Amino acid sequence: MAAAVQEPGDDVQKILLTQGDVSENPTPIPDHVNKEMSPSVMPNAVGQSTGLLEEKLKESLRVDDNESTEYISPIEDPYTRAVKYLERYNVMHIFQQLTASLVFHRPEDPLQFLLDEILKIQKEKEATLAE
Fold it and tell me: Mind telling me which residue stretches traverse the membrane in this protein (predicted)?
């Protein structure tokens, strides 16, 4: 939050933006405005006071004791869902293994080589599950 700083004898009001940063405001703000306009009564873009908006928000969020409320889980971020999927099925590990093998062997037909490697991985997985 910006704080106004007026030094005696200055025609320009300085506004403290962050710790140590000061910006000059060419339009001085009269002292009576700073005192009258506290955050609880400052009008917003629609002309309502912030306090009135807070009251309306609290009223809209009020739950009647007789009403049953059920928990609605938040929507999961698509990126997080994708990462969880990749981790669950070890997709990144498989791609890393395939890419390393492809670069190491440098076959004439890379697509066929990758298909053969995938089949080999699938047979190893089935053998492990059968044990």
Answer: none
